[in-house]
Amino acid sequence: MSGDAATLWPRVAEGLRRDLGVRTFDHWLKPVRFADYCTLSGVVTLETASRFSANWINERFGDRLELAWRQQLPAVRSVMVRGGAAANERAAALSSQPLPSFEPPPPAPAANPALLNFDPRLSFGRFVVARSNILAANAARRMAMVEAPQFNPLYLCSGTGQGKTHLLQAIAQDYAAAHPTANIILMSAEKFMLEFVGAMRGGDMMAFKARLRAADLLLLDDLQFVIGKNSTQEELLHTIDDLMTAGKRLVVTADRPPAMLDGVEARLLSRLSGGLVADIEAPEDDLRERIIRQRLAAMPMVEVPDNVVAYLVKHFTRNIRELEGALNKLLAYAALTGTTVDLALAEDRLAENVRTARPRITIDEIQRAVCAHYRLDKSEMASKRRVRAIARPRQVAMYLAKELTPRSYPEIGRRFGGRDHSTVIHAVRTVEALRVNDSELDAEIAAIRRSLNS
User: Fold this and answer.
1) Domain for residue 106, yes or no?
2) Are residues 128 and 60 in the same domain?
3) How confident is the model over 77-86, as pLDDT tens digits?
């Protein structure tokens, strides 16, 4: 049976190449060779040149390998990749033998076809829970259960890289496992918009509407991208109404709460706020350390000292994606150069990452800092009052918002009481001109900037 399993590896590999992309496959999985299949345990053993590569593949692609093998051989229970000297010798022997020609069997059906579109690494089991994300994590688990959820729709909001998409994927996978025949649709809000526009232009709106309304579970990622698109918002509103009326489930993510989605119709905001709005806050020190420890536990051959873990926790505070990216960069450099991971290496190789990972300043923080400096109530930033004691600080806040954030003039105007972009441009130019000759104002702005950076 091991020989029969060996003939399936080229087909498994070709499927992985399509799913993961040529670049990722060629870098990590192309050197992998079939080693053995045990019919008693159901374990497929694969081999690659180094232990580091084997650990990395097991961590990053282990679930994907298992799924790919089960499609070809349902009796497979798990897949293990091993590396080292023995693997090198066996790979050299195998490389001299031509692969046998065969007619591969048809793929075995998955329990739910929707599972094939999801990333098995993004599961609830791999989502580390702490105070900052416990509400969102527990609400997501409830949404995936067989029983009807207490709150529907579920609205998850956080900054980038905090785990929103991870939870979407986990909900989809658990729901698919609990509801084998369910119709699950996971798409970005931007894709929703593009498909809607395409359906309108192609005269295919009925099919577009029917597909969405047939969903048992609809998951929409990054809702902020439909801001200002009135026709798309109208269709999304009707879709939500139909799904809610039919008792279907809806999960939405965005980078801010519904009330802060400027340019979104009030009726749509009402629907989105009608279930549960769950914030995912910035990850605390304990959560960031536990995430690093979890990743390292899956790579037992990799040694990372405690002071390096502490360095990563201290400097990568903004989101989980940057933290994991820094860890991956450090481990990859050490493995590819044969260097020992220590604090000196971390400080040297991650210096640029540390600089770019500093928390970004928000318009809200700028408004608060300006109001604290001039002793104003924050509501004055959006008020219509034009007395100099209020108008000038408001102009300073607009100037700093343009200088310290990536927001556009229209976006800044919306955060200052819905002002026109020309008002913001005028404020920025006025403050720029005043700073040249008004040393007192220049000193005030410098003081506010220091308070924001501290």
Assistant:
1) no
2) no
3) 888 888 764 4
